[in-house]
Amino acid sequence: MDGVEETLKRIESNASVAGTIVLNSEGVPIRSSFDSGTSSRYGREVSEITALARSAVRDLDPQNDLQLLCIRFNKREIIIGAGEILSEISFLFLLIDS
Amino acid sequence: TSSQPKKEFVNEEIEETFSKYDLPISFQEPVTQAMLKEILITDTDCVSLLDIPPNVVSVNSDGADIITERNKQYAEACGKRFKIDNYVDRAMQTLKRAAKNKCTQMDLMLKTDAGNMPLFHLSALREAFCFPQTFDMFVISSCSLKDVEAVGTSSNTKLDWELIKTSEKFHYLLVITERIILRSIFHCPLAAYRGLPVKPEEMDQSKRCTEISCSPALECLWVFSCELTRGRTVSCMAWDKNNPDLLAVGYSETDSMNEKPGLVCCWCIINPTWPERIIYCDGAITTLDFSANHPGRLAVGMSDGVIAIYNLQTADIKAPTFSKYVEETVGSFATCISHKDCLFLQDANIYLTCTWEGNIQKRSCSRSYDLLETYSKHSGPANCVTWCPFHPDVFLSCSSDSTIRLWKQDCKSPMLSFTSNHRAVHEVRWSPRQAAVFGAVNDSQLEIWDLNTNFLNPVIVQRAAPGLKMTSLLFASRSDCVMVGDSCGQVTVYKLQNIFTGESSQVK
């Protein structure tokens, strides 16, 4: 089994994936395959909507937690994965073309 | 008169704010002399949730009457709160977001050292709080500003990234997202593999327009290939008996010139771009098979005579759990072990071996050196023998003399012989779903024969791409598909179309 870096590279090398961004709990991009401007824009928007989705999930079932969120646009699709380490939230998300 | 209650009110307020400075003192242990040397009395952080300072107005001022009136109204409303419908009790959810640091400033509090007072009574505490100078109180006079930049400082983010990388949860999420992407890419071929109908709007433009032909044909679904396998020859393939979606493929060296270590890859049909497990072995792989009783165990036979058993349940496979060097071939579970001799188990007792001279020998497990029967007709080395899954007595053999022969167990000469082009046939397999169908693979093409339709020619012939040699063949048990391995390390999955199950064939 290969590590995290190799898996990320494989995902990015896929033809239909535009790129990946990893964010930290404040929505700041830590590792991104896009330029910093786009990354920070996406980071801001995505952290807001993920917090909303997460609060919705926890409202419905307090034991549960948000794992993946897929948003499909007309032209693209975003997959957002959320996880917590040491009570910090780490995001991962990708952009896919339709 | 009206100033009196206000003064009390103000006093109460002061007392309330000071009661927040509760010191955590435990009365449980007796305080010893040693403990008295260092007593730190500190103050916990003050969190103010709501801070509305009261507006104090003198009774004698002009607007005092209005304010007193409003106060009275408010007191009445509070009293009537439970009866009126205007007020509803409702719970609110506090959303815990990332904490932000805010800077605050306070006036420096004067400190004087006073004598140590080891024992306190609660009443004494209450009085003492009104005179803050009596105790050592460390007060944070100012907080340092922590900049929260838009892009983040470099040291912070690097630490975060290192932490995140080691997290298993992150890895798991990555694997899931990779599968999601692949599922959307390979949606149509996977649906065809499983025999599920695909909605027309989901198919590619090109496929929608082709007409549906009625003759038997092969449709190429996908190819298992990655950079690790490029350039190697596929020598053997096996399905996992416990998990029908898992395919183990053994790769051997291409020529004797490149001494690469042997490779076994376990592919899952969900992901044709990267294998689920990768095992490097010392020798070239000649055969492998999964255990039927123990899930996740794979036995691998190599050309230098070593049999190794690997446990596939761990993600990282470095060494086999069991490894044994055998001089000669041993039949354990229907695998063919060393280079040229092949074994196949039928019932628990009888197995067949094929030899370099072209003879096929039937032996019994209980007395393995006793030759029960010899079937000789092939003029070249016999490469592969396979029992028919529908007839217990019938088997097929193929050899480098470019013929495939159908035998019945009791009869010394073959019932039928098939040949189509003059190439050595590497492998022959029965279809597990249709009784009279078998496939054979030689250097240049894949042939599917249907004995119900045609004895002389294969019903489907799929030529290999130029420069490629097909080396290995396997039918899928749950699906009408056949896997073909070739000399470039690719395993192509073809779907059989328009081959219908007839009644089981009559053997002459």
Automatic annotation (TrEMBL), chain A:
SMART domains in alphabetical order: Robl_LC7
Alphabetical list of InterPro entries matching this protein: Roadblock/LAMTOR2_dom
Domain Roadblock/LAMTOR2: 4-90
Protein family: Belongs to the GAMAD family.
PANTHER family for this protein: DYNEIN LIGHT CHAIN ROADBLOCK
Name this polypeptide is given: Dynein light chain roadblock-type 2
Organism: Cyprinodon variegatus
Automatic annotation (TrEMBL), chain B:
PROSITE patterns hit by this protein: WD_REPEATS_1, WD_REPEATS_2
Predominant localisation class: cytoplasm
Single GO term (MF): dynein light chain binding
Domain of life according to the entry: Eukaryota
GO terms under cellular component: axonemal dynein complex; dynein axonemal particle
Any one Gene Ontology BP term: cilium movement
Keyword tRNA-binding: no
Pfam families hit by this protein: WD40
The keyword Cytoplasm is annotated on this UniProt entry: yes
WD repeat ranges, renumbered to this chain: 375-408, 418-453
Subcellular localization: Cytoplasm, Cytoskeleton, Flagellum axoneme; Dynein axonemal particle
This protein's UniProt keywords: Cell projection, Cilium, Cytoplasm, Cytoskeleton, Flagellum, Repeat, WD repeat
InterPro entries xref list: Dynein_IC, WD40/YVTN_repeat-like_dom_sf, WD40_repeat_CS, WD40_repeat_dom_sf, WD40_rpt
Protein name (database record): Dynein axonemal intermediate chain 4
Organism this protein belongs to: Cyprinodon variegatus
Lineage of origin: Eukaryota, Metazoa, Chordata, Craniata, Vertebrata
